[in-house]
Amino acid sequence: MKIFILLVLFYIGYSGNNGQECYCNQLLTEADCLMSQLQCSWNSFKQQCKYETTIYQPQSIIREYCNQFSNDTCNKLKPCESCVSNGPCQLRYGSCSHFTGCTAFVEKDNSKCQQISERCITDGVQCVEIGICDSYKTEIACQQDMNHKWCFWDKNTSKCRYPEKCEELPKTFYQDSQCKSQISDCESSQQGGCQDQTIIYSVSTTSNTSSTTTTQTTTTTTSYNASPSLNQCKDFTLESECIKNLEGSPCYWNENSCKDKVCSIAPKNFKTNKICQNFLSFCITMKEGGCMNNGTCQVANTLEACAKDIFGVDCVWTANGGCIYKNCSLAPTTITSNQDCDSFIKDVCVVKEGGGCRNKECEDLYGSSHVSCWTQKSGCTVGLNSKCAKIKNCEDTTLKGACMEGLNGPCLWIFNQFSNEQPQGKCYSYNSCQSIQWNTDQQCKQVSPFCTTDGTKCIPITQCSETNTNGGCVNGNDGQCIQTVMALNNTQTVCKKFDTCSSAYYLKHEECQNANKNCTTNGLTGCISLFDCSAYKTKESCKINSEKYSCFWNEIQQICRDSICSDYNFNTHQQCNLVVINVKDKCTSDGEQCLVISSCTTYKSKLVCNNAQATEGTCIWSELESQCKVKQCSDISAQNLANCSLELGSCTFDGTKCIQWQLCSNYQTKVACNTMGLDGICFWSKSGSCSLMTSCKSATDDEQACRQANQKCNWLSSGSCEDHQCDSYYKQHGTCTNLQNWNGQSQIICQEKSGNCNYVDPMTLNQKDCYKVSNYWYTWNPTTSKCAICNPQIKPSNNTNGTNTSKNSNNTNSTTGNDNTNSTNSTDSSETLTNQESTSSSFFITYFMLFILIVFI
Ligand SMILES: *[C@@H]1O[C@H](CO)[C@@H](O)[C@H](O)[C@H]1NC(C)=O
Ligand SMILES: *[C@@H]1O[C@H](CO)[C@@H](O)[C@H](O)[C@H]1NC(C)=O
Ligand SMILES: *[C@@H]1O[C@H](CO)[C@@H](O)[C@H](O)[C@H]1NC(C)=O
Ligand SMILES: *[C@@H]1O[C@H](CO)[C@@H](O)[C@H](O)[C@H]1NC(C)=O
Ligand SMILES: *[C@@H]1O[C@H](CO)[C@@H](O)[C@H](O)[C@H]1NC(C)=O
Ligand SMILES: *[C@@H]1O[C@H](CO)[C@@H](O)[C@H](O)[C@H]1NC(C)=O
Ligand SMILES: *[C@@H]1O[C@H](CO)[C@@H](O)[C@H](O)[C@H]1NC(C)=O
Ligand SMILES: *[C@@H]1O[C@H](CO)[C@@H](O)[C@H](O)[C@H]1NC(C)=O
Ligand SMILES: *[C@@H]1O[C@H](CO)[C@@H](O)[C@H](O)[C@H]1NC(C)=O
Ligand SMILES: *[C@@H]1O[C@H](CO)[C@@H](O)[C@H](O)[C@H]1NC(C)=O
Ligand SMILES: *[C@@H]1O[C@H](CO)[C@@H](O)[C@H](O)[C@H]1NC(C)=O
């Protein structure tokens, strides 16, 4: 309840914000663009912020899900069509979505299954997940396990298992290595397939064919080994031959012999890095003279060699004479700007408090999506306030946009409308349907239409005939399923593909409904399709017709017909209202039985009139006229506001009696005036009239009105009503927020600093705060390095005490509409009144909700 009030207050506080917010195309920096509350997206080629016109269909959200994985989580995920490669995604009907499980798909071809996901192969009928051999149920699926180990189909037991003997390895094997890779002491057999190693030996000694192959192998090996010495540097004896070896690597003539040219043989009189580099490009100088390989920073032992490591990463020479990798903490404390830290090590360092630099953390980056954060720094995802944050375990991730890759693997954001915890959804560690522990089909369908339940967790759907009867028998990969007992009076349940209702054998309407929502029972042999009420022959069938409207069984005539309100004997309106008779009629109650809702004047008895609801609302019986009339506020004799409104929503209280809610100016008493007008908060003036409040000053004679408008106004103990200032609002409400004036056309910008909330001139805001703190009215202009307003036709108000902040602007005309009463003739005032009422009705509803909440708490 309290939260609800806050929401309403929030809404009132911000409802005036129209048209001042920067448009996408006015945002000039990527950071502001990413931060925008509108659907803006940054085009990094054009360096422009654009409105994202594509409407977010569920389809594209799913596509987005798969597009967001970084390459190492989900190889080749871009473009989405390659989402099939062993990732958290699957491709079906041209769309890429989170992987659910293979059995949801009917494919007879391995290649077709693989096109859905590389995690799937076929079992001849449908796809199945590649797993361990023992998990395959058919011979056709019994091929390889997830680690590419081969499986064996044991015909005797009709089971798939790992091969135990060489003969059980595939007949297609023809190389020893293939056999050995599966079972180490197997070798290939002449007939194809594999054999025990020992048998091969006994064959090779006796058989001519195999001994010839052995000799052949020996000769080739010898010829290969015959002249290797000629190919190496050390084999050259003349300086003129000493150039390169057979592989093309350089040789070096030194001390009358030819040697491989490597850094370490460079003469000791090589003393500079330049000479070493000229010797071989990857050599660096060393302390004692000579050269060594460029490697990590740590290998360098002179200042000169300590420049960059072999990959070009910067090194630094330390005070105590060692070479280490350059890192942000080595920056001198005289550095005090991000720019200087960035030039210390590009894209890595940011300024540290107190001077110097530190490593850039996720929290230092701006980004509005997982991808934008991850691409800036791996291990980062989107965080609060358009900043990036470190990734966490899926279960600890509270932001939908960050629910992508957790520390513990892929995540998925799922709504569970059947649970009250986190109604806006929750982040789950996700691998397939089976990751989610829900026990009804309806719940699991929230994960994917390809999921159902097995009674304890979600599972991918499969063929109806293979589907469990613990709640999973709803739809299969072969269509709709129906659950039934095997036969009449049998208790064993099975799941079947749904053809007609008659394939289920139940004698109760509810049981047939459970089997399929389009079925009822005939009461004799089993279920039948829903039909017209009049077609049902037994009382048990006579429940609902094919349009799901109620039927009624007439016991006397023993016939079934469409039901009417008066068939039901409920004594409250609520009960009768739940009865579904047909499209147009709804039922209410006269206190004894139900009847069709109609207008008050058609209710001819006092009993009906006083109990039944009418199309106009509530009725009341007039003893005087002996007829039923629409109940008016004046018919209520309540002593306070709460009772007036509770009895009739259209009534407020004027101090003595209930009256209709009206525009402020029509209220005649202060009590009524202070309840709220249809057009907003009202105030009572000294002269004794009620008006719509359009400034705080105007409520200086009406403390109650001032306090009612506490989102904008502050009641001073000195007895005046003043516009809230940053600090007074902060003291009263505990939050530092920008304050908008009465018509929402200007605002005071407030900023919290060390526990105080103060006015700031938005022009003085820095790049980081400009857009956010100005409530999205200003943006950072990188060319001028200034915080500038986007829509300058509306100037923000100065921090003055004046209340007439934008009286000079013309557009009070249609937005508030209450400014003057002179513009309309009195003759047509009734018409304008209704116009005013309708334009301000949404405003009223907001306030009315607030009011009701406050009154009834
Ligand atoms: C992912 O891989 C594709 C293709 O290999 C490449 O074009 C793309 O830039 C990579 N994306 C990231 C974020 O590394
Ligand atoms: C199958 O059973 C037959 C006869 O019982 C037996 O000879 C054969 O070895 C069995 N095959 C396997 C693979 O167990
Ligand atoms: C080490 O190798 C890198 C990359 O090739 C090069 O930029 C650097 O200058 C080399 N180091 C030295 C001291 O020559
Ligand atoms: C089913 O059981 C009911 C009562 O238990 C019995 O009257 C009926 O004949 C049985 N039907 C069949 C088909 O066995
Ligand atoms: C019931 O029938 C309607 C209309 O033929 C169909 O759209 C709906 O899917 C069916 N529902 C079930 C549960 O079979
Ligand atoms: C605010 O007031 C000062 C002086 O009172 C004036 O110089 C300034 O222009 C005003 N700013 C705006 C935005 O009206
Ligand atoms: C606003 O008015 C109050 C009282 O009249 C005064 O004390 C205060 O200084 C004023 N504030 C500004 C910013 O002018
Ligand atoms: C008021 O609006 C009229 C036309 O709509 C325009 O000509 C005039 O300049 C406006 N006045 C002000 C003060 O904005
Ligand atoms: C007031 O509204 C009317 C109708 O919407 C429009 O024609 C007129 O120009 C407006 N006047 C001003 C001053 O904005
Ligand atoms: C209404 O019009 C009359 C005469 O035309 C004028 O004297 C009076 O000040 C106007 N009132 C308002 C609120 O504009
Ligand atoms: C007021 O009413 C008179 C006659 O009823 C009409 O001529 C006149 O135009 C109206 N004035 C306005 C401002 O609507």
Describe what you observe in this structure.
By secondary structure, the chain is of the alpha+beta class. Among the domains are: 1-48 and 726-798, no CATH class; 58-172, no CATH class; 173-197, no CATH class; 237-326, no CATH class; 369-431, no CATH class; 573-630, no CATH class; 640-710 and 840-857, no CATH class. Strand 36 and strand 37 form a beta hairpin. Helix 1 (2-14) packs antiparallel against helix 21 (841-856). One 2-acetamido-2-deoxy-beta-D-glucopyranose binds next to loops. Residues 23-67, 73-114, 132-180, 532-577 form the PSI domain.
Approximate helicity band:
10-25%
Question: Which residues sit in consecutive blocks of at least 5 with pLDDT less than 50?
Answer: 1-17, 55-63, 73-83, 199-228, 798-847, 852-857
Q: In oligomeric terms, what are we looking at?
A: single chain
Biggest sheet descriptor: 3 strands, antiparallel
Mean pLDDT, nearest integer? 80
Structural class: alpha+beta
The general outline is flat
Strand share of the residues? 15-25%
End-to-end gap: 8 Å
Strands of the widest sheet, in order across it, are 21-22-23
In DSSP terms (H or I, runs of 4 or more residues), the helix count works out at: 21
Please tally the β strands and state the result. Answer: 49
Q: What ions, cofactors and ligands are bound?
A: 2-acetamido-2-deoxy-beta-D-glucopyranose
Evaluate the radius of gyration: 41 Å
InterPro entries: Paramecium_SA, PSI
Organism: Paramecium octaurelia
Pfam family, one: Paramecium_SA
Keywords: Glycoprotein, Signal
